[in-house]
Amino acid sequence: MRRIYFFAIIADINGTIEGPWESVTRLIGQAHTLVHRNGVVRIQTDVRIGTRTDKEEHFAEKVSKVESILTERVHDAGGGDEAEEDTVKLQRPV
User: Fold this and answer.
1) Measured between alpha carbons, how far is 17 from 7 in angstroms, rounded to an integer?
2) What is the tally of structural domains in the chain?
3) For every one of its 94 residues, what pLDDT tens digit does the chain have, with 9 covering 90 and above?
4) Do 43 and 3 belong together in one domain?
């Protein structure tokens, strides 16, 4: 058996899954099956798929970059450590 690793961020109304194409689509199907087995008769999933070949870029890197930019803006606006922590927390999915 081969192990597949995913990077996932799931928030209250959306999520991001990063991994091999076939594995990600299979995971979405398995999630639907699990929800149906728990009595939900109708599910709708909207999917946006992006690929790129010009460079290797991972979602975790994007999250880190956004957090870094937000931290800089808080410091530039005169906020202290407490303000920085609150801003970063608001940007991270639950």
Assistant:
1) 6
2) 2
3) 566 666 666 666 777 888 888 888 998 999 999 999 999 999 988 888 888 889 887 777 877 888 888 888 877 777 655 544 444 344 444 4
4) yes
* pTM metric for this prediction: 0.55
Provide the residue range defining the domain that includes 35: 1-51
The CA-atom distances, in angstroms, between 54 and each of 9, 49, 57 are 24, 16, 9
Token code pair at residue 8: 């996932």
Radius of gyration of the chain (CA): 18
Whether residues 39 and 70 fall in one domain:
no
Residue 60 shares a structural domain with residue 47: no
